[in-house]
Amino acid sequence: MTSHPRDEERRWWKEAVVYQIYPRSFKDSDGDGVGDIPGIIEKADYLADLGVDCIWLNPVYESPNADNGYDIADYRAIMDEFGTMDDWEQLRDELHKRDIKLIMDLVVNHTSDEHAWFLNSRASTDNEFREYYWWREGRDPEETDLDPEVYDTPDDVNEVPPNDWESFFGGPAWSYDEDSGEWYLHLFDRKQPDLNWENEAVRDEVFEMMEWWLQKGIDGFRMDVINLISKPEGLPDTDPENDIETIDRAVNGPNVHDYLGEMRERVLEPDFLSVGEMIGAPMPMETARQYVTPGPEGDGLSMIFHFEHVLVDRGDDALELTEWTLPDLKAIFDRWQDGLAEAGWNSLYFNNHDQPRQVSRYGNDSEYRRESAKLLATLLHTLRGTPYIYQGEELGMTNYPFESLDDFRDVATLNPIRSALEAGEIESFEAVKDRARAMSRDNARTPMQWDDSEYAGFTDPDSTPWIDVNPNKETINVEAERADQNSVWHYYRDLISLRKEHDVIVYGDYDPLTPGHESLWAYTRTLGDDSLLVVLNFSDDETQFESPEDLKGANAEILISNYEADVSDVADAVLRPWEARVYDLR
Ligand code: TEU
Fold first, then answer.
1. Which phi and psi angles does 557 have, rounded to 5°?
2. Is the CB of 279 under 6 A from ligand 1?
3. pTM (2 decimals)?
């Protein structure tokens, strides 16, 4: 049994609650319909009132915005739409003044095709920048199974790309460059060429840039798709017969731990929050541990974002939805809670700028919106790990009622649907409407709902927001929820403050009690003499919790619950729809 953490195991980033800000959709200060840094500064007190300890800021760097800032043209400059470097410095200071830390997004698997490195790289085949990216000659179609018709090449070029990989946004992962007659690799959009980390000069550039930001006083990085930086030897084709797709070829490449080890030695410190986004699933636990074990044995990342629980309802195809079950979801969390119990640390999230809204996906966003939003929050804030709140989650914001293709802005939604339409695989948008609605990243990107005014207080009434505001801003908004003691907002605030009072929430052991149950998720957290029991009813129906013998008659007090809690008896409690209870068993 874990007793109180030894001092060296204590880390601010284990005790913190992180709040993610997607600047484009948070708050527009200058009426151009796009959120910006001065807008975030206006809301610094809001963040302090909620009680969060750290902000993760999505990319604010100069970018042509093919992928909303994940296509960076200059790592050391701020995007005009978002403000200036002075604004950024002011934001840093305003946050730090309120004891809120700041981590920046590090997007170094790829750059924009408008980054100076790529412009140079493209300019000729023999300059030092050519080796910054993955340029390769094409192949004779006869020697492959690939259909040259599929690729975008001039009529007189009868070639297919160096391998058959597909972009994660749909279409081929290679684009043909007419000037040099070669192809370049882009695992995402064609405007996001992959950097070649095998080149030491690339690593130097990246580490110097990270150092530059750390010198500016930031507290760490969220590392975009960092498990893609090392590519497999020879860039082999996929192997569908053995179920090996592009993603399997691309993740956790042979040198990834060397590169991260070098990063750890050169720029990272244990006190920085470094959270690596690791796409693809499932990930072997050994690999995960390697990423999060402190140096020199491990790569020394504080934690990672794995994808297993957010792929639980996804099929193989980008547009395929499947049913998820609670036992499946629990099994994933249990595996990670257990896998990183001794070494490493977990991140806890359902939402971010790439995921549909959690209450629409794992909860009930109509009749039990409020209850289920609070239940999901209870889960994320009482598991072992660091909880991440994505803007609007603290209001129980929901998915958007998308009606037509024009409502979407995201390349990851638009590219595959447009290709499917062009290829005649679907006749109209209607064929994929339900799926696009359920899973589009744009669900997360509609503007933050501050009040019930025309554009929810996100931007001026006489401006036009870059993406529509959810009509439910009438009732779901900051102003209304702050005025209502029973709101999702107040519940989040309570959860955040409980974390500060109870070490057991941060450091306690996790023990699941109901792994196979269809609708109940119950577990204990234990640290020395402190012990919590969490019981969650993932259902529209009442569900009885049969407590283990040793908990019957335990002296329990309800620490927090999403219902009026007149019950303190653990034994065989009947939980109401989406009821969440946290008992203090001490
Ligand atoms: O996302 C990684 C990623 O591949 C997925 O989350 C992606 O959104 C999904 O597979 C699309 O269907 C990161 C960023 O979080 C995301 O916003 C960027 O678009 C992507 O990397 C490229 O930088």
1. -125, 140
2. yes
3. 0.97
